[in-house]
Amino acid sequence: GAVVSQHPSWVICKSGTSVKIECRSLDFQATTMFWYRQFPKQSLMLMATSNEGSKATYEQGVEKDKFLINHASLTLSTLTVTSAHPEDSSFYICSARPGAGNTEAFFGQGTRLTVV
Amino acid sequence: GESVGLHLPTLSVQEGDNSIINCAYSNSASDYFIWYKQESGKGPQFIIDIRSNMDKRQGQRVTVLLNKTVKHLSLQIAATQPGDSAVYFCAESGGSYIPTFGRGTSLIVHP
Prior knowledge:
The complex is a heterodimer. Chain A has strands at residues 4-7, 10-13, 19-25, 32-38, 44-51, 57-58, 67-73, 76-81, 90-97, 106-107, 111-115. Chain A is mainly β. In chain A, strands 2, 4, 5, 6, 9, 10 and 11 form a 7-stranded mixed β-sheet that branches. Chain A has a 4-stranded antiparallel β-sheet with strand order 1-3-8-7, with no helix packed on it. Chain B is 0% helix and 50% strand. Chain B is built from no helices and 10 strands. The A-B interface holds A 1, 4, 6, 32, 34, 36, 39, 41-46, 49, 91, 93, 95, 97, 100-110, 112 and B 3-8, 31-32, 34, 36, 41-46, 49, 51, 89, 93-94, 97-104, 106.
């Protein structure tokens, strides 16, 4: 299957700082990428849909000014958690879809963010 | 449909047994369904998918059944192995083409 690489795998940051997470599709072009957040022992909650060259679409309740998403190319989307708080600590996962329409989405390995 | 942020139910089985993991989806307009396996600290891994024009699809040791009437999806794993221990999620998508995850089930395989 197609490979999606997420970096970093884990990060610890201080409260008030910003953290950037990268999501790359390594062997395909992804017009659309998705960002999810997962708390321990819970399901993946969609945060936003990232479209190359346009603004991301955020789910209800997700602050777009806090979770900045940039999808500058067909192989890279970034999520920046701004002014991080301890409650932002979570597992962030991206996925990318090679084609349009209802096809399989491939997932990155996730990023464990801990805000201290 | 909406994914539900509830704590995960658990299914415990003995090695060699068959496992059946169930999922109820919420959106009757969904026409594409995927099962994912997630190991601790990792991203979801694709297992098998099925479209709404089918009611059964088989892969290697896995079978997915779809019952659109009651909006129910199941994953059957034959001859379950310790390496199958993980959390299993169903995901659905429809006209929005956005994968929405179900609740998830933690599968524990005892040797």
